[in-house]
Amino acid sequence: MAVVDQAKANFILSTLKNIEYGSVIITVHDGHITQIDKTEKTRFESKRVTAKNQK
User: Fold this and answer.
1) Which of 4, 6, 22, 42 is 20 to 30 A from 54 (CA-CA)?
2) Helices (H), 1-55
């Protein structure tokens, strides 16, 4: 098991703390973190018009 660099660990933790919806993908090659991808989603409330709201 490889030792994780403190800077990489801090980056991953910071990314996780600052994401509300989405994913964090950590790519590992030969036991070393080579890439970190963050996909963040923004959600908006939908305002549906229903028969009850139209009256």
Assistant:
1) 42
2) 6-17, 51-54
Query: How many domains is the chain partitioned into structurally?
Result: 1
Cα–Cα–Cα angle for 45, 50, 55, nearest 5°? Answer: 125
Asked whether residue 19 is assigned to any structural domain, the reply reads: yes
Amino acid at 15: T
Q: How many residues in the chain?
A: 55
How crowded is residue 15: how many other Cβ atoms within 10 Å of its Cβ? Answer: 16
Contacts of 36 (CB under 8 A, 6+ apart): 8, 11, 12, 15, 24, 25, 26, 27
Give residue-wise pLDDT tens across range 20-54: 999 999 999 999 999 999 999 998 888 877 776 66
